Amino acid sequence: FGALLQAAGGTTLGDDAAVLRVDAADALVVTGGRTVSVVGVPGAVVVDTADAVLVTTCEHAQAVKAAVDGWRARGREDLL
User: Would the pTM of this model clear 0.85, i.e. be above it?
Assistant: First the structure.
């Protein structure tokens, strides 16, 4: 997620006006147009797309593969 943060040029990829952070330093938010609030989760990573939302922390970025594998096992290739 560090590369994504760098590519975003900050902590938001998308409409920064649609994102509110409260006690959430360094929270990375990728917004697909919906309003996103991050409260009390420093280092959070929120990825909002049209059909899915991913919420994790930078610390747990390597575990995202387990979520991908889990949705694949449930036959939800459409989410990947």
Answer: no
What does each of the 80 residues of the chain score in pLDDT, given as a tens digit?
667 666 666 688 889 999 999 999 889 999 988 999 999 999 999 999 999 999 999 889 889 999 999 999 999 999 88
Can you spell out the DSSP letters for 9-60?
Answer: TSSEES-GGGEEEES-TT-EEE-SSS-EEEES-TTEEEEE-SS-EEEEEGGG
Structural Rg of the chain based on CA atoms: 13
Domain that holds residue 54: 2-79
For the chain, how many structural domains are there in total? 1
CB neighbourhood size of 71 (10 A): 15
